[in-house]
């Protein structure tokens, strides 16, 4: 446990000393704050537009941070061979994988927290009200990023950094489209195509399960069951994907 | 591989030059095999072909071989960075995969691979956490090893600013941090200046004097001759020779060199390997079996022999012979 914590803490420290992270965070904060400008320029409820754009920016930049940082922090550890020093010590390979994952999730969480606070302050300035539902939206985005970070960890041990980044990005895109694809199968005549889409649907996460943006922006009621299922769904995916990452890394010769 | 284990008998007794003395085995590697499969369209590379050796507790053991002989792969297998296809590795009586075995091990990689964002001190603290060292005295421990490697004044700079020599020193410091029973050093002196080499050598000798077993991989022969008790020569994935350094160097006198006053006799019948004449003094080298004939002939010619010295086989000669035998 101590080794895992040390690896996570080192991963976090490495990230916060990396300028790339600040570039992403800076863009995200600028995007959230400038949502006020979009609100002023667009016809409609300014507050809703600020929340909508702010939450979209939160999700997009969190995804970018998760994808980029996972590749930098995990692949670099293997490519730069700093991992040799860790694995020659009393540390199991699964502890390394989990430590890196936890470090990555902490980075994404810290940035998400910062972006959420900036969005809440922006909304507070515009409306004079503190919208706590934005925290809920942030938490659900965090859940989505935890799933995505698990995939990024898997791809980092499975393949080269750039390909791994692209594959994680593909999971993000397909994950947000898979529900629509599933609905599309009803319109497609071919059994084979339907089978392929079904496989994609079940193998990749349906990330729309974590999307409560419409409900938060429009103050709609949120089903407790939907939230509960999203949590269970995320945990199940994280466990399975990290298990696969560990399985791959456990037998891997490092050169 | 029985011939490879010349320094030991079947009970794990290390045979010294002056007889036998009981020793515990700190590291045992038996019949280690490893083949790498680079890719679909590339041929497999058999790196280790049944490598076996044992290192006794408290000795400085040199692991000598050319680049590509399998030294680093062996070390990576010992430290569980690569997985051998076959063979057994025992560290201090424990399987090398056990955490307890790894706690007793200090390892320094061939090239220092470190985190550029950490300071030397932060890096050692990270290593201390990985080793699960007591936090209450971790600071003191870190200060002690930093002092030992001569890095105390530069420990609070980020490692991205370190020279190669400084990284080597920090690498050694992290290997020493857990007070290991077995220290595995992969090319610890490569890239160091003479002062650095001397410092590292002194640290190794001091730790060995304190009872730490040192397993020391290198392709620099003078390093081995200077500090190792025993040496294994690895060529093409196999141990080709193993034994006490002094024994290997003195055992095989292949020729003799004679110096005598006067010119070289023109009708000398003894086959010479080499000869040279300068300032009224002649120097010749003959094979061992021709030594007596040379002395007799020089006596017959009334030459005044100044010196007659055996030319002993050096580790370099032995290693070169093994290269040639294997076509390496």
Brief rundown of the structure:
Chain A has 255 residues and is mainly alpha-helical. Chain A is built from 10 helices and no strands.
Describe the structure.
- The complex is a heterodimer of chains A (255) and B (328).
- Chain A is mostly helical.
- Chain A is built from 10 helices and no strands.
- Chain A starts with a helix and ends in a 5-residue tail after the last helix.
- In chain A, 45% of the residues are buried.
- The mean pLDDT of chain A is 87.
- In chain B, 30% of the residues lie in helices and 31% in strands.
- Chain B has 10 helices and 16 strands.
- Chain B has helices at residues 71-78, 99-103, 120-130, 138-148, 164-176, 194-209, 221-227, 245-251, 291-300, 315-326, and strands at 13-16, 19-22, 25-36, 45-56, 60-64, 86-91, 94-95, 105-108, 182-186, 213-218, 230-235, 238-244, 253-261, 274-278, 281-287, 304-312.
- In chain B, the strands form 4 sheets. Chain B has a 6-stranded mixed β-sheet, sandwiched between helices.
- In chain B, strand 14 and strand 15 form a beta hairpin.
